[in-house]
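Regression test attached.
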Amino acid sequence: KQEVTQIPAALSVPEGENLVLNCSFTDSAIYNLQWFRQDPGKGLTSLLLIQSSQREQTSGRLNASLDKSSGRSTLYIAASQPGDSATYLCAVRPRRIGETSGSRLTFGEGTQLTVNP
Amino acid sequence: SAVISQKPSRDICQRGTSLTIQCQVDSQVTMMFWYRQQPGQSLTLIATANQGSEATYESGFVIDKFPISRPNLTFSTLTVSNMSPEDSSIYLCSVAAGDGPQHFGDGTRLSIL
């Protein structure tokens, strides 16, 4: 059974700092990995999707890497801002959507990030 | 990416009643899912909503408690039946297709008194 762990559970940093959020998964046979952001009381916003054949994806100040063989992904946030404060979730998918019934996402517990002005 | 609208955004309900949550997507999507997020926890998949057929439920979730409809490729409903305080959660609709990312609505925050 796939298990996803995120470390740290909470992180507080001053504005402007570069930071790394970690995600590990127990079964390396994944199809893709997705990073999300969740603001309090809100739904999830997709940040980055990395296919299993890719090593990294970048969007603005965000960079996500994937090392499938070691079961790890990192989300790097450059020059953090107070508006980055949110919970960050990673999720892995074992198979392509729709191919089989076993294609559901497995989520980590999230990292709650606070960026202080 | 698809725009997902959920209604209601929040509700406070009495024990023993039922509530139907609607999910509308602005484009046809292959897969629609319903998740639950209990306070302070991550997301748990309730079921996959299948167009024109019965939903596929995850272990621990049953149709009598969480009946789901999906009459077409842009709309689905989730009903939370015979509610108890343990059902107080955020319920989220999600869509996905093929190799693309999965997207979520803003969720329905449900409180049971």
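Expected vs. actual: identical. Chain A is about 0% helix and 55% strand.
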